[in-house]
Model the fold of this input.
Amino acid sequence: AEMPQMAMAHEVDPKEELLTKVGDISGIDVFNNAVLVAIYVRPTKTKSGLYLTDKYTDEDRIQGKAGLVIKKGPRAFVDESGQWFAGATIEENDWVIFRPSDGWPINVNGVSCRLIDDVAIRGKVDQPDRVW
Done:
């Protein structure tokens, strides 16, 4: 059964939490138009006090549809023709949405991530809880 849209209780800002968990990534270079995205995993508690089981957080790691851009290749979102991105820009520390199967799953410093081609990123969101 799919969980309905709900507000999650964040003890720490989810962006800060992911960046802290992933730590130093200065030794990682991303090539061409690839984007390295840290997968957003919902906290186990909602604002209304409902607790999610480990099943949901495990599912997020595998099927998560939102993530934080932590590195971009030098050609990511560069489009001289203007046909692909139509002025849309994605920067490091932006929350993005994507189809889980479009990314190559990897762990970076113990954090679930995906390496995704820029064209497979479908949009940007202000808060990762908006989608799943």
